[in-house]
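Running this now, will post back.
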Amino acid sequence: MTEATSNEDSRGTILVINGPNLNLLGTREPEKYGTSTLADVEQLATATGEAHGFTVECVQSNHEGVLLDVIHAARGTAVGIVLNAGAFTHTSVALRDALAAVQVPAVEVHITNVHQREEFRHHSFLSPVCAAVIVGAGVFGYKLAIDYLGETL
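Update: finished.
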């Protein structure tokens, strides 16, 4: 886990979690995902969080268990979660259960509009336990998610 910013007067920490294949942003299917890199996303999230008075921590993993551990660790340490679980969105009951268990407001983010894609991407195990869902806004969706948390926390 890398802390993107530190602020003693912070309103708390927002955890930005990116799942499988998001480490390849900028080079992976740029016609779908754009040319922004994961570092660009993290920089955008950090700047947006700071504008709302939050500390932002960013984590990316291709491993479901690591993502579960990060969500579990958010209990008592984070005031909000922004989660792009990638393909795990459509397969992981474990991530859904972890989000429900920690009871930290979460926003599900997808760079592409999953409803315009393959049928299997239309179902999310995570949406029912998230406060909001943002799809199809590109990497700008991360900013929207943090803005939402900034207004509701």
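The chain has five helices and six strands. More later if anyone needs it.
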